[in-house]
Amino acid sequence: MFAKDISTSVKKKDHDGKVSGQLAYISDVKVDSMLYGVLYRSPIAYGKVRSIRLPPLPDGYEKIGAEHIPGNNFVKLLHNDQPIFANEWVNYIGEPMFILVGPKLDILYQLVEKVEVDFEEHPAIFTLEEAIKQKDQTGVFAHHEFGESLDVMESIEKHVYQVIEEVYETGYQEHVYLEPQGMLGIYKEDGILVKGSMQCLYYVKNALISALACEDDEVRVIQSPTGGGFGGKEDFPSMMACHVAIAAKEVKKPVMLLFDRAEDMEVTTKRHPAKFTYRTALDEQGNILSMNVEVFLDGGANAGLSPVVLQRALLNSSGVYKIPHFHAKGYALKTNTVPNGAFRGFGAPQSFAAIESHLGHLSKIVQRDPIEYKRNYLVKQGDPTITNGRFRDPILLEDMIQDLLQTADYTKIKEEFHTFNQQNKRYKKGIGASFFLHGCGFTGSGERDHIKAVVKLEKTEKGQVLIRVSNSDMGQGALTTLSKIVAKELDLPYEDILFPDPDTKDVPDSGPTVASRTTMIVGKLLERAAGKLKAKWQSGVAQEVVEHYIHEDMIPWDEETFSGDAYPAYSWGVNLIGVKVDILTGNVQVEKVYGSFDIGKAIDERIVKGQIDGGMAQGIAYGFMEKMTSKMGKIQQISISDYGPPTAMDLVHIESNLYDNPYAGGPYGAKGAGELPLTGGAPAVQAAIEDALQIPFYQIPVTPELIIESLTRKGGEARD
Amino acid sequence: MIKFHLNGREVETDAPPTARLIDVLRDEFALIGSKEGCGDGECGACSVFVNTLVQNSCLIPIGAIERAEILTIDGFSQTEQFQVLSECYSEAGAVQCGFCIPGMVMASAALLSKNPHPTEEEIREGISGNLCRCTGYNMIVDATRLAAKKGEGLW
Amino acid sequence: MGTVLSYRLEDLEQTIAQLSREDCQIMAGGTDLMVQHKSPMGAPARFDKPVIFIDHLKELKQIYQVNHDLHIGACCTYSEMLEHPLIPSIFKIAIKQIAAPAIRNRGTLGGNICNASPAGDTLPLLYIFNAQIRLRSSKGERVVEIQDFIQGPRRVDRLKEEIVTEIILPEMQADRFVFEKVANRRADAIAKISFAGSMRLDEGRVGDVRFAFGAVGPTIIRSLAIEQKLKGEAFPLDPKIIDEVAADFDQIINPIDDHRSTAAYRKTVALRLLRHFLETM
């Protein structure tokens, strides 16, 4: 088996262009007669458009709006409630209403400032709380309920020793990909070409076909080198693509739409804020007898991907635990705020923060160590999932925990911290753990029923092989990992595998670059395709192999009853984080970070380690640093420094460890790796802070403000 | 006309004095290496050397750098120091989406020129003005440390 | 908007001459101004007055001592100050917490002062050093105490024909200096609260004590009256006296809620830092 070989790292294919700055991202592109576009955005949260008054537009400057849309004025996604140009009703501050195009950006900015729109303003729903109160009247994007019958739950609670109820909240998280969003639409006689920063080539193409009411071959989309995505460029780019395509079609010139950082932070999709209510029945020994969860997600002003985020949030609401009687209910609700969307983890980070927090608090109530308490409930191979699916494959969680506790010398550290905390007036140290998983691939039957991925390999006469898939490299190394799989399978040098920018003219739809499916699903298809190509290889002849997704037999997923195998495979993680809290200021310093991960098999060890480093950084910061708020429908943090993602000085090296646990359905045994590393960060950091301060928290981010407030309430060492 | 030195040549521009250096570099001189990630001097993706000091080109009005020597990543990538950094960045796995990387390379170079044997903390401080969202910084720190070793004598 | 003229003159003399003729936007490093006046991406910054560049003027970059007073040129950058042996180490501690290296290579002390942000990082220390600001115009010079120079957020006592040439730090003896900046991350962050303190003990009693807070009011908060209360007191200080001082400050600190933090947090932490400073040595 060459399994060990494939994990060996290689120089990334796009290294030289990136490191010298010469690789052109969309904002680096200039084409002849290119015009810029600037969007006019709604200044109000909810209302009807009465009239629009434009300043006089100089020659060469035009307004393009809903009236110019040949097809449907909505962005084709799950629901049809996201206008391309909102011209009748506006539903959130920042909603695009029309676009001004012209040759000079500074003139466009000045013109946009002079636009006057008259609205009939209506009372808006600004918060999740308000939406929950009115949920029977207002927008429910999705709703599911499943699990143990309510009768059984009720009868358990009646006779039980105690019932613990907790409310837990998670906040926004903003991607802050370094490259702001950008899209270019180029008008051609025979159709429209759209290039830009994106994760999902065919989402964009399908949205364009719907908007332009045109034929399949009249639209071409090419993915530009993409400077980070993390889910923020999953669905949002489709709307931008429609903007530039419609504009380009009208003015018959190329139109470039580039977002400023402030604009990007204010109006693009974010991680759904969430509210969880747990009701857990405990017996006298502190054992869990039943658990009831209610989840609410703040979807923002249109459905977007909220229904699927809700699904994953619900599917993860019991964490990595086998709970005797479990019932869950969830809603994705509409508010008149910026629509929320995909962000690495896609509902899982919220749920794991909640369940890990809850179990940690339960352990405190019954006076047991949180790690020891949680270990009693870990799922095992063969156990059913909460939707009556099955954990078919080996689960190494118990070993991973055991190893990590040993490596980190957990017992000794706890003692050291205890001593330190008694002696030190200003600082308190704590250590916390999190246990988590990620379901790999699209939720439910998405792969089989919606995506139906197809990949293609093209062999040239010279013997080079081109990878034709619709999947993006957005930094996660897909370019390299997929090339490695094909090279290995074909027994060719890595340099002979070429991976041009995905272009709808040349690539079949292998599905979106989301849901940790790229290596596992697309990689597997490429592995099979390469195997077939190898078998029929003819020197000096151009050849082609196409491979289709084959659905693995599992317990079929039923959307209606919310039951079955939601995912074909799971990746697993354990985090252990040590922090130092300054009780004078509430500032938290992360001092030690451990992460152990089972992602099946690393196609490239260094790339996986990079994903761990970056994912954990985002997850940890989600737990205590990054705070975004919305006030009266307006996002308050629109600069990087105000939002506070970590700098190099805020983080430390991560000691990470990979466990081999090959999954037959993945290439060389690989499972999903992209999202898993983020999920465990926040719960572990919260647990560490709680350990340091001996105070429970019921929301993330655990900010200094929250810490000081809690310390003040507790009485604590410092008087005021 | 404002005259200055750009990547070793003398150039001039008739852009207004309050035009940003980043725009003049990218639009007028077609040097795309300096990227705009924020326009506020908070992400470092636009870093250039001004008279050997690393600065954010999005905050520099062109009028202020009359007669100055500007070195962008486009020019710096022709140097031996860059070669070492590029190899070390590759070896350490430091490049993911790449958008922050030109700025990071400039910051690493600036640090090593002043401090050829930096500690971990000094490296983190040296790149503290460069935001990265993909890597969590660790491999970039490793790359810089590696470059300090491999480029012994160059800095 | 028509083209606005800008100036970049050979020397200080010519710069001052221009200022006497025209009201200009003085720009040193520009790291604050270019953000305040920025356009969205791709467009030049917008100013409503001609910009006059000064960061190249050598006359404004001198650092020297006269008797025991330290004179710092208004256009000294943070990086230059960090490398200069005459700059007190407590200032270097504060400066290292400003932004990041690239900003520190451009931002100037004069700029930080004239920007007069409530959260200006050098300001609390300048206040406790009793810094003086020297201004020059074609009509002559004047020297203003910093607490009189800064009048409010972004407002300073500079007449339009004047330019700040240097900052004077009178000699200062202390046994202990403290500077703390509390922010949402460890670099590139705006202070939620900042605190500067100094103490000198004379034979176990407080000989001189000074403290100032940033970001908890429209300008830096310092009270000479409260400092006077502590003079002569035995150290370690009686807890009752610390309580009194904290209560006095509670009255004069008036922080706000904003998108970075809360009034409650700012006030609580400011007072905790004060207590900590008064309790420890």
Structural overview:
- The complex is a heterotrimer of chains A (720), B (155) and C (281).
- Chain A has 21 helices and 26 strands.
- Chain A has 720 residues and is α+β, with helices and mostly antiparallel strands.
- In chain A, the strands form six sheets. Chain A has a seven-stranded mixed beta sheet, sandwiched between helices.
- In chain A, strand 10 (191-196), helix 6 and strand 11 form a beta-alpha-beta unit.
- Chain B is α+β, with helices and mostly antiparallel strands.
- Chain B is built from six helices and five strands.
- Chain B has helices at 21-28, 73-76, 80-92, 101-114, 120-126, 138-150, and strands spanning 2-6, 9-13, 47-50, 53-56, 69-71.
- In chain B, helix 3 (80-92) packs across helix 6.
- The longest helix of chain B is centred in the last third of the chain and has 14 residues, at 101-114.
- Chain C has 281 residues and is of the alpha+beta class.
- Chain C is 31% helix and 25% strand.
- The longest helix of chain C is centred in the last third of the chain and has 17 residues, at 263-279.
- Chains in contact: A-B, A-C, B-C.
- Chains A and B meet through helix 2 and helix 17 of A and helix 3, helix 4, helix 5 and helix 6 of B.
Number of domain units of chain B: 2
> What would the principal axes of the Cα set say about the shape of chain C?
globular
Mean pLDDT of chain C: 96
Q: Helical segment tally of chain C?
A: 11
| Helix percentage of chain B | 25-40%
CATH class of the largest domain in chain C: Alpha Beta
Low-confidence stretches of chain B: none
Question: Would you summarize the structure shown here?
Answer:
Chain A has 720 residues and is an alpha+beta fold. The N and C termini of chain A lie far apart (66 Å). Chain C has 2 domains: 6-169, Uridine Diphospho-n-acetylenolpyruvylglucosamine Reductase, domain 3 (2-Layer Sandwich); 176-279, CO dehydrogenase flavoprotein, C-terminal domain (Enolase-like, domain 1, 2-Layer Sandwich).
Topology, element by element:
The complex is a heterotrimer of chains A (720), B (155) and C (281).
Chain A: H1 3-7, H2 15-20, E1 35-41, E2 47-53, E3 62-64, E4 89-90, E5 96-102, H3 105-113, E6 116-121, H4 128-133, E7 140-147, H5 150-158, E8 162-170, E9 182-188, E10 191-196, H6 201-212, E11 219-223, H7 236-251, E12 255-258, H8 261-267, E13 274-282, E14 288-298, H9 306-315, E15 326-333, H10 348-365, H11 370-375, H12 397-407, H13 410-423, E16 427-440, H14 446-451, E17 454-459, E18 465-468, H15 478-490, E19 497-498, H16 518-535, E20 543-548, E21 569-582, E22 588-598, H17 605-624, E23 630-631, E24 634-635, H18 640-643, E25 654-659, H19 676-679, H20 681-693, E26 699-700, H21 704-714
Helix pairs in contact in A: 6-7, 9-10, 10-20, 15-16, 17-20
Chain B: E1 2-6, E2 9-13, H1 21-28, E3 47-50, E4 53-56, E5 69-71, H2 73-76, H3 80-92, H4 101-114, H5 120-126, H6 138-150
Parallel strand pairs in B: 1-5
Antiparallel strand pairs in B: 1-2, 3-4, 3-5
Helix pairs in contact in B: 3-6
Chain C: E1 6-7, H1 12-21, E2 25-27, H2 33-36, E3 51-53, E4 63-66, E5 69-73, H3 78-83, H4 89-95, H5 101-104, H6 109-115, H7 123-128, E6 132-137, E7 140-145, H8 146-149, E8 150-152, E9 155-156, E10 163-169, E11 176-182, E12 193-202, E13 205-214, E14 221-222, H9 224-230, H10 239-252, H11 263-279
Parallel strand pairs in C: 1-3, 2-3
Antiparallel strand pairs in C: 4-5, 5-10, 6-7, 6-10, 8-9, 11-12, 12-13, 13-14
